[in-house]
Design goal:
Length: about 140
């Protein structure tokens, strides 16, 4: 006989696709056309949140860091990711990108192809990212 573990007093919830409003990635954090579809928000005591982010061709984030790191799961298209001082890496559907805490980087679509990824990160002291300077055209390599 298997011993049963007591259940939490909280109920299991289902967040329906499309139940949260999409928004355009703000120009102060992105170059080009970017749509963010929130998937889940922080639910204490957990600190994680996630979103489906869609970049039109050549769209990208600014340079930024995450206090507790970030995981990207590419779902469609072709994209790029670069760590400060490192080479640009191509990313495609099914690829999982693990970005360590406080690592300066950017990510976005390829020059002629859109890209979507699920972004998962945790907040620390209310912040999930520290936004830095724009990625120049030369850095992007278009």
């Amino acid at each position: 006989m298997t011993e049963q573990t007591p259940s939490s007093t909280e109920a299991v919830t289902v967040s329906r696709a499309g139940s949260q409003d999409s928004y355009h990635g703000p120009a102060e954090w992105f170059t080009g056309s970017v749509r963010v579809d929130p998937l889940f928000a922080v639910r204490h005591p957990a600190a994680g949140s996630g979103a489906l982010v869609t970049f039109e061709p050549a769209a990208r984030t600014d340079w930024h860091t995450h206090p507790l790191g970030q995981t990207l799961i590419v779902t469609a298209g072709c994209g790029r990711v670069q760590q400060w001082g490192g080479p640009i890496q191509e990313i495609r559907p099914g690829d999982v990108v693990s970005i360590p805490a406080n690592t300066k980087h950017w990510h976005g679509a390829a020059p002629t192809t859109a890209m979507s990824h699920i972004a998962i990160q945790e907040q620390q002291q209310g912040s999930v990212a520290n936004w830095l300077e724009k990625v120049s055209e030369e850095q992007y390599g278009s």
